[in-house]
C-alpha cells in the first residue's frame, strides 16, 4: 500500500521497503505507466477484494455489477482506475446497494397452487361482497364457516412492491397457522392461485368495535388492555396489521371479555401493495413502520374509548395515552398495557380496610405502604402473648398483646436487612394510621389480623422438620428472585499476569456465572458489593472465562482478594429477571400456564402439534436412533419439551439439527438459544454455523453478551454486526442518497458533490467545533488542552488545503470559522449545478443529515439498533445471565421456540428471562450433574422465608422438578448413546450414576478413536482407568481446618509425577501439544487444591508447548468441558471419613465423566474404601477393584515413575 500522511517534514520514498509481500503492479514492470500513489492503492485494494470475493478460486463468479467495479480498479493503465480509495469504495457500495429492489421470484413459487379457491371453497351467495380489488365471501366446509378472500386484480410481477406484499402475507399466514392464538384469525390456507392471491380463515363471531357500545369503565379498561395485548402478540409473531381501526377489532359475543383482530392482510394493486386507514394513522405515517402505525392506532382507539366514558375514570390510561401520542413514534405498548392494568385493578378493587391505632407515645401519621401493601408478621407465645409486626417501607409498627391488654406499642425505623419482602412478612392490602392518645384503641385492628391469620402456631412449638408436601414452586420462585437483589457477582483474583497501556490483567475464579452487555459500565469494588470501596473499572474488551482486566485502578488489589463486579445497570438486569418471573407466575408468559409444568403436584398433559419430519429429513442430520426418536417426540408434543442429555450424548448436535430443521423446514422465524454457560452457548452456535454452512443455507444469527466470545462467533456479535452495517452503509451512501433524492427530484451529480463536500470539509468542521468546545470547558486539564490544541492545528491545516477545491479561494483559518466556510461551500454547489434550485439543495442536505444521523447511530451502539438486530435475526444466542443484562428488550417480543441448554444448572430467575418468551420451549439438561449455583447465604435466607420448604428443594433444579413430574415422565426424552468416553470409563460412569435411575449409557460405534494413544506407553498410561492410592505417602492426610479451604499435598505431588511421566513420552506429548484444545484436565474438588497444584505446576520445568496442553480447574467450573486425559484430585482424607462435598453424586459424576481416553483418580484408599465414608467414590473404588486390570486398576502413587 502507498498511503500518505500530510506532514510538514520532508520524508524519503519508503515504498519499496514497506511494501512487504504485496502483489506486483503493472507499473512495476513498465515504468512508462506512471500512476499516483492513490491509484496504486486502488489496484492493490481491487486485488484484495477479488481474492476475498472469490475465496481464491479461479473463475468463481462475483455478484452482478461487482466484477465491473473490480475490473476498473485493477485496470492496467493507472489513469483508467478510480482516482482514490474513496471513489473505489463509493462505486463498490453502489454495486452492492442497487437503487432498485431485486425481488427473488422463487420465494413466491412455493406458495403457488393449481386449484381455484372459488371452486375449492364454494361461496354462500348471500355473503358475497365484491369491489374493484377484492372478493370476499363465507363458505361452509365440514360444518365450519370459513371466510375466503381473493384478489383477482393482482398478479405476480406487477411490481417488486406488490410481490413483496404478497410474500409478506403468505409468510405471515404460515407463521400464524404454526402458532394459533385466540386474539388473531385462525387461518386455514393461503396461496397464489390462477385467479390471484387468496387466503382462507375461520369465520369469527362477534361485534366490530366500531358498532359496539362499551359503556362501563371496567369494560373499557379490559378492552384497551386486550387490544394492546393482541397487537403485541401479533408483532411478536413478526407480523403487522397496518390497517388497524375499530372496524377491524371484533368483540367477543358473550363474557368473558375478549377481542380478535380481523382483516389482518389486505392487498392493493397500487403503490406498495398495502391498504391503509388514514383515520387511525399518524400524519407522518409514510416514515413509520407498519408496527409503529399499529401501535399508534391502538393508542388512538384507546383514547376514543376512554373519552366516550369519561377520562376521569382512567387517570393512568389518560396519562399514558397523552405521553404516547406526543412521541414521534410509539415504540412499545407496554405503558398502555401497564396503565390499563393499573386502572382495571383500581376499578375492580374493593375499598381497602383502614384502621386507626391509638396508644400513648405513637406518632400522628400513616404507615407508608409499599404500593398499597403492608407486610404482616405474627408471633404467638405459650403464655398467650401475641406480637404483631406491621412493616411499611420506612417504619414498622410493633404491637404486643397480653390478652386484651397492650404490653408494648411503638413505631420503629425498619431495619436495613429487613427490606426484603421475604423478611418483612406476608403482604396484605390495608392501611394503618397511628395516633397519640391516653385511651388505647387497637381492638378492631387486632380482630382483623386474627381473622386474616388464624392458623399461625406458637413460636416455641413450631416443628423444625421441613416438609415439601404441598409447597408451591411459585412461592419459591418469588422468594429466590427477591433474594437475588442482595447478591452481586464477586470473583477471587489470582496472579497479575500482564499489563496493558491502561489496565492490569488478573486471573480470577468465580463461584457463580456472570456476564455483562458490551456497553456496560462495570466497577470493581471491595467485597461489600455496591457499597464497597472502588478499585477500578472492568475492561470488557479483555474479559474471558479465566482472566479480566482492571483499568483506572485507585490501588492494586492483592492476590486472593475477593472483589465485587458492580454493573451500574445491574438494577435493570435484576428488574428484568423479576419481570420474567412475575410474568410467568401471573400467567402472562407466551405459555400462560408455564409455571404448572414445574409444579410436581400438577397433572399436566401434553398438547399434540402437527410437526412431523420425514425419515430422510431426520436421517440427513446423522442422528443416532435415540436422538431421532427424541427429535420426533419433542416436535410432536409440547408445549414444553424436556430432554435429559447425560455426558457426551450429543446434545449440541441435537440442538443444531433441531434448530436447522425448524428454520429450513418448519418455517420458524424466531428462535432463542440460551444456556447457563458460555461454553454451551458457543458450542450450540458454532454447531449451527457449521451445519447451515455445510448445507449451503444462510443463518441469521446474533450472539448476545460481551464475555466468552470465540473468534468464530465474533462476526455474529452485535458490535461486529453494527460495524459491518456501518461500513456497508457508508460505502453505499451515494447510491442510497441517489435513490432517495431521485424520488424527490434531486439531481444525482448534486448529491454526489454534497457527499464529497461533507467528507472533505463538513467532517473536519464538525471536529474542529467539538475541539473548540472542549478547550472552552473549564474542566479540561492543561495536558488535555495542549493535546486538543495540537490536534486542532493539524485539522485546520488539512481544512485549509481542501477548502479551495470547493470555495475557489484560499481561506484564513485564523479569521474565518470552519462551519461558516462550509455554508459558503454549500452555496457554491449551486454555481456548479445551475439546473438545481435552492430547494433541491435544501432537500439534499436534509437527506444527508438523516443519513449522517443513521451512521452516527450505527457507530454509537444505540439501543434501537441492537433491537433492530434482534428483530431481524432468526436465531439469537446468549447465556441466561447475558440475556437478562443485554440492552435489547427481548421481553418486548416472542419466539417460536426457546431452547435452554444446561437447564438443570439455571436458577429460577435465569430460566425466567428466556422461558417467558417462547410459544414452544425445550429444556435440555441433566439433573444428575451439577445443580444450580445458589450461594449458601441465599439458601439460608430462603429457608428463613419459607420454613415449610426443605433445603433440598431450594437447591433442586427446576429442570429436575419438571422432568420427574407426571408430565416429565410421560413426555421427557433421554439420550443414552454417548460419543465421548472410552468404553471402560462409560461403563464406570453409567453403572454408578445412571443405572440407579434406570438409564444405561452405551458407547457409540461411531465414537472417534484417538490414535495418539496408540503410541507405546508405560503401563500406567496405557490403561483407561487408574486409581492412584496415596495412603502410603507421609502427607496423605488432608490439610486445612475450614470445610471449604482443603488441600492434599500427596495428591498434588502425585499430579505432578503423572504430568512429568506424560511429558517424558516425547512423541506422545508432542502429539498432545498439537491439539488446539487443552488435552489434559486436572479437576480439583476444592479451590485450595487447584491453587496448590497451579503453584507447583508453575515451578516445574515443563516446556511451553506442554504447559499449553494442561488445564487446572475446580469441579464446579468443569461441566460442559472435556479432555482426553483427566486427573481427579479428591482431596479429602481424614480419620472421620468425612467426604465433605465429595459426597455429592452430581459433583462426582461431572468429575469422572469429563475424560475421553484416560481417567486418573487420586485418593486415599483407606478413606474411600471404608463403609463409613458416605460418597459415591466408595462405589467407584470398589468397581475399579473388580474390573479387568487391563482396563482399570488401583495402584500406589509410588508406581508413578
TrEMBL record:
Instruction: List, alphabetically, the CDD domains matched.
Output: SF1_C_Upf1
Please report a single Pfam family linked to this protein.
AAA_11
Q: Name one GO molecular function term.
A: helicase activity
Q: Identify the residues that the record assigns to the DNA2/NAM7 helicase-like C-terminal domain, covering every copy.
A: 956-1164
User: What SUPFAM superfamilies does the record point to?
Assistant: P-loop containing nucleoside triphosphate hydrolases, Protein kinase-like (PK-like)
Coiled-coil residues? none
Occurrences of domain DNA2/NAM7 helicase helicase (ranges)? 623-934
Q: Which residues cross the membrane?
A: none
Which organism encodes this protein? Answer: Gluconacetobacter dulcium
Q: What is this protein called?
A: AAA family ATPase
Residues annotated as signal peptide: none
PANTHER family linked to this entry: DNA2/NAM7 HELICASE FAMILY (PTHR10887), HELICASE SENATAXIN ISOFORM X1-RELATED (PTHR10887:SF495)
The source's superkingdom equals: Bacteria
